[in-house]
């Protein structure tokens, strides 16, 4: 999705389904307002392509407040999840992060903004707050032309 603007520019008649748009639609459907965003260190910034797209929809996005915590989330994705390593310790760290974002940053939903995260975290792990699996949302979007 980093090159989405180029695809849309060079192929204007192509139906392009942006993951940020499908996720934004789901956020609006669930009537969520302030969204916590989890992903790699590169995607947990206001200028990442998906975050920018969500913000274009008027969605309030926040990230874990601690740079150290953001780095640890990234490291788990790169060193473990990307290699099919799923540990209880990493799961607990993600759950703790989600609950911190809910309680301290007052998020009412959490975007799992990396394909590997839903292999570690399920909605049943954090029933206190909706989690949005961007990959599933994107894949399950139906477009009628």
TrEMBL record:
One of its GO terms (molecular function) is amino-acid racemase activity. It holds the Pfam family Asp_Glu_race. The keyword Isomerase applies. InterPro entries: Asp/Glu/hydantoin_racemase, Asp/Glu_race, Asp/Glu_racemase_AS_2. The keyword Disulfide bond does not apply. Keywords: Isomerase. Coiled coil: none annotated. PANTHER family: ASPARTATE-GLUTAMATE RACEMASE FAMILY, GLUTAMATE RACEMASE. This is Aspartate racemase. It comes from Didymodactylos carnosus.
């Amino acid at each position: 999705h980093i090159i989405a603007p180029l695809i849309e520019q060079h192929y204007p008649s192509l139906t392009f389904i942006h993951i940020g748009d499908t996720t934004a639609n789901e956020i609006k459907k669930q009537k969520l307002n302030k969204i916590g965003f989890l992903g790699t260190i590169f995607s947990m910034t206001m200028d990442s392509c998906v975050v920018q797209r969500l913000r274009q929809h008027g969605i309030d996005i926040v990230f874990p407040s601690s740079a150290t915590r953001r780095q640890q989330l990234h490291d788990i994705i790169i060193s473990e999840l990307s290699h099919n390593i799923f540990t209880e310790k990493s799961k607990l760290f993600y759950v703790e992060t989600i609950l911190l974002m809910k309680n301290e940053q007052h998020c009412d939903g959490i975007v799992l903004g990396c394909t590997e995260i839903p292999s570690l975290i399920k909605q049943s792990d954090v029933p206190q707050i909706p989690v949005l699996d961007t990959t599933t949302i994107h894949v399950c979007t139906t477009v009628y032309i």
